[in-house]
Amino acid sequence: MTQSSNNTSQQNTRNIIIIIVVFLIVSVGFFFYIGNSIDEEIQANKDNTLALPQSVKRVITNRDIDKIEEQVSTNQTVNFNKYVYLREGTNTSESGEKFYYEFDTQMNEKLNTLQNVSVSDIDGIILYRLHTETIGYYETDDMLSNIVSTIGGGEKDKENTSSKKAMKLCVILSYVSVPDGIVLKADSIWGTEPPSRIKNTDNAGIGSLPDDDEIIKTIHNTIK
After folding, report:
1. Contacts of 32 by beta carbon, 8 Å cutoff, 6+ apart
2. Does 36 map to a domain?
3. Which residue, of 22, 30, 103, 193, has the greatest Cβ tally within 10 A?
């Protein structure tokens, strides 16, 4: 009886060890796959940025590109025939040419514009830029030592208000005419509200970004 119990215990131990080993192998493989996928996406974005025609590069190598984006005098109709979607982010070519926006391979696949990456007659660029706005500060709550209470409307130096910000995220899409180098229109897509309560260990409360489907819907509604 004792021998049988020992055998059963040893078998259970071996089974647990096998399960742990399998789990570790799967976990390592998963994280390797994720890391490799991220590296591939970064490289694809860089390669596609370098493949853009010179007419587009002239826009995204402009140090004053932010000023161009701010010069939206009127909301004009956007009639792009061929366009690409670029995300804010620096990239440098082998020759030292610095780009202030880069090709977003994943989003261009979703927009079915990936084939436009190297065509010479691109007439439009969509520039993605992230904006954050502070809409308030969190008020401290002595009754809940691990919680900062609902967002207050007062100044941050007010006695009952912390310096922890409540922030909303906004995606700004600027539609740039390549031949003219001007912004025809800009769309602002706001994310969700920040949480009403955060822990004292949190540095801030931030709402989530609008998802890709919402961005794509907005683009399709804007480009005629």
Report:
1. none
2. no
3. 103
| Helix or strand run (H / E) with residue 46 | helix 2-50
Is 202 within a domain? yes
Q: Is residue 35 part of a domain?
A: no
Token look-up 């995220």 returns 169
Looking up tokens 């008020």 gives 139
pLDDT digit string, tens, across residues 19-37: 666 666 655 554 443 444 5
The region of weakest confidence among 41-45, 118-122, 151-155, 191-195 is: 151-155
- What CA dihedral angle connects 196, 198, 203 and 207, to 10 degrees? -40
CA 40 to mean position of chain CA atoms:
17
CA distance 106 to 212: 10
Instruction: Give the domain extent around 91.
Output: 51-224
Is 224 domain-assigned?
yes
Among residues 49, 88, 116, 51, which one has the least CA distance to residue 174?
A: 88
181's enclosing H/E stretch is none
pTM of the model: 0.72
